[in-house]
Amino acid sequence: MDYQNRAGSKFGGGGVASQSATNADRRERLRKLALETIDLDKDPYFFKNHVGSFECRLCLTVHQNDGSYLAHTQGRKHQTNLARRAAKDAQLGKKQEEGYTGANAVQVKKNIVKIGRPGYSITKTRDPITRQDGLLFSLQVPEIAQDVEPKIRFMSAYEQKVEDPPDKAFQYLLVAAEPYETCGFKIQARDIDKREEKFWTWFDGDSKTFWVQINFKTEREERYSGVPGLAPLRGR
Fold first, then answer.
1. What dotted CATH number matches 119-224?
2. CA atoms of 78 and 72, how far apart (whole Å)
3. Where is this region: Disordered (predicted)?
4. What's the pLDDT score for residue 103?
């Protein structure tokens, strides 16, 4: 570091570096050190988000450039988390893959860059015989990854982190289809009739369209669910 031409210093002498300059020099040295040992293309914790910043998925930190991320990998926090992760995997009987060092010591599934939300439509339905209310979801996923089929799950209002406070009158239907972002549909917190003919999913590989049909239980089935002899749950 050049300490000349600083306030209070003599010509040819070393001035007092500011705290910010010292930190900048330290980050640069750490970045150069990391470049010698880390290949970002093989780093399972390195992730570039949709706004162009870089994230460390191990420490849950955000960095403005790759140099800042590289310096972070040489810091105490990242190294400590690496050691903890390795110890946990060792305890679970996992073996580290040969040829990986530093930030690559523990290999995990690499995050896939999301490309946005798929197009979708929702249609209200009603069973003509049982008069059950239902919903038919149709999602268009033309860029879905090869050999990947969409998956769904139901999530309660207390599991989500978007609405605070959570509303127990609603639940969420999640649909995941890499590389698209996971879609969440807010629906009534009513019991779902999960009999085969009432609840089904179907993925059309030709048109890249995913269908989800759900039907809510009738008011009688919800009220007397589990009561012996009343509103038996057929198909279970």
1. 2.60.40
2. 7
3. 1-25
4. 43
